[in-house]
Amino acid sequence: MKIAHEIIRTATESWLLIFFLVVLAIAIVVYLRSRKQILFESWITMYDSKENDLGKSVADLLLFKIGYIKSVHQRSAGTIGNWNIYRDVPAFRQSLDENVKLLASVELGKYGSFLTAVSTLLFSLLPMVFRPARLKGSIHKYGDRLQLLATLEFYAPAKWRTSATTLWEVVQEKSTNETVPEAVEELAFRIYLDLTREEIFKSWAGFQAYTKGLDSYRSYVDLQRPADYHNAKKHYGEALKLEPNNPAIRYSMGVLEYYQWDVDRNNEAIKDFQGAVAAAQTHLRSYAHSGLANALLQKYGRYNFRDPRLLEDAVYHAQRAVEIDPDIDMSNRALAFAYHQLSESQAASQDAAVRRQSATNRELAIQHYTRAFELNEQNYAAHNNLANLYLEWGTRDATEDKALSVKNLRRAIQECEATLAINPQYHLAFDNLGNAHLQLGELEKAADSYKNALRYKPDYPEGMNDLGAVHLNKTFPGRNVMDALRHHQDALLLLPKPEQQQQRQKLCTLFGKRWLNNVVQPETQLEPGIRQTLLDAHCTCVATMQKNAVEARSAT
Fold it and tell me: Which of these, 200, 347, 356, lies nearest to 278 by C-alpha position?
């Protein structure tokens, strides 16, 4: 019995100790949370009014508006780091002052939950220990003139007994019940901008327009609705009118235009990124340099403007991005892509020294692509770019070193699969996958990959052209020359602008080579109507060859 009593006594003491530790832990958590909260208290109506609930309505709406602003910027920052680096949104993160976080609900204690009641009691009884910031205000009206006064009281950790006060005022002339929400929204943007202590924006109105543009851009990323793109561009444009030299707005506009996959918009993106590279914020400046490098490389590669100066400038800006902040995955991907493209441009040189430099740059590209994965394992664009590197390497070495070529093409397939494991709808990865299968002679897999690329992006000219080219292959079970020509024509029709002539030429060069290698008489004799249709689509390969042949026969 004595032993049993001893065990019970020890257990009781242990439970008391455990209970004390739990209470202490809860107290610490509540204390830490209280230091990161704003209590949205009731607003006082300072004029005779029958609208008894106006004060609470203003407080509720103010919390909603501030929460909306915070949500837009937090979700945008999360988009960069968590799942969608390729469609990156503005580079800086909106972080509130450490002592003032927007985590509380309106009039904490009015919703009846046990936790809210306990928190409110602690805040009231121990204000010097549990010291949340308190946001309250008053509503004044003089005829049609509305005045909102908001006051934030908070304690700074370095000054234990000293509180600080911040005051905001919004005045609305000729106010009506319908325009009160506009005044509350202005107040919300003023408060948020001051709490973040973000010096990029010089006006609340510019920040408001920018935030709306950012929200529309995120919707466009998720849903791909043209209306969201146009809304984002409109709001960014409004913000730029108010703050034309704001690097965050310029960078965001550059991102919006860059991912439209259009040569004209890419040129606009280059101008916007150039306007952001002088940003005072290190993180944003690094992103602007990497964005500019990518846009220059797109112009060189995708849009087929083979100006060596584009490569030189791209390498410079990518290097600057990494120098400014070596721990950003986007910057490392941009530098890898720059070395990658430079390596490809040097690989065909007759000079052995230049070819050795090409190999060095290729290794640097692989190194920085790998660094991008290490910094962000969700960076699927880096995986896809590396797949493209191995694809080009394997294709180039197909006649000189067959074993190495096959090895690199298999590596390309692995990187494409890694890309699609992160983003299963990424059309560029399907296109690279199709090209790798094509080089390995796996024609049905290649066709399926091209079809998947077009399934997720039906207006993708390169995928359309590649699908047409595979239909020309003599060993393809579904070989159909007329289907091939139709796909080629459709691809060209997706590029109708005079400014897209270089891109059309790139498609015709590829398709023309496949035509010469795989199509024989009488298939080469196109009907005049088909030939003219291709010429109308600006075809410079098959249709032009046919036209020249007809003219030559007529001359003889």
Answer: 200
pLDDT digits (tens, 9 = 90+) for 499-552: 889 999 999 999 988 888 887 665 556 777 777 888 888 888 877 766 655 555
* H or E element at residue 421: helix 402-422
Q: The pTM is what?
A: 0.79
Integer angstrom CA distances of residue 271 from 329, 397, 487 = 23, 38, 34
Phi, then psi, of 164 in degrees rounded to 5? -125, 155
Assess contact for 273 and 290: CB atoms under 8 A.
no
In the β-sheet with 145-155, what is the strand arrangement from edge to edge?
Answer: 38-45, 133-142, 145-155, 163-172
The beta-strand segments (E) located in 319-397 are none
Per-residue 3-state assignment (H helix, E strand, C coil) for 8-34:
HHHHHHHHHHHHHHHHHHHHHHHHHHH
- Give how far Cα 21 sits from Cα of 16, 17, 28, 29, 73, Å: 9, 6, 10, 12, 38
Report the alpha-carbon distance of residue 361 to residue 162 in Å, rounded: 59
Q: Which helix (H) or strand (E) holds 167?
A: strand 163-172
From residue 171, how far is each of 62, 510, 532 by CA, in Å? Answer: 15, 64, 67
Q: What's the rounded Cα separation, in Å, for the pair 324 and 459?
A: 37
For 13-34, what is each residue's pLDDT tens digit? 566 667 767 767 766 665 555 5
Q: Is residue 447 helix, strand or coil? A: helix
> All domains of the chain, ordered by start, with CATH?
35-140 (no CATH), 277-378 (1.25.40.10)
Which pLDDT does position 438 carry in this prediction? 94
The mean pLDDT value of the chain amounts to: 82
3 state SS of 389: helix
In tens, the pLDDT along 249-271 reads: 999 999 999 988 899 999 999 99
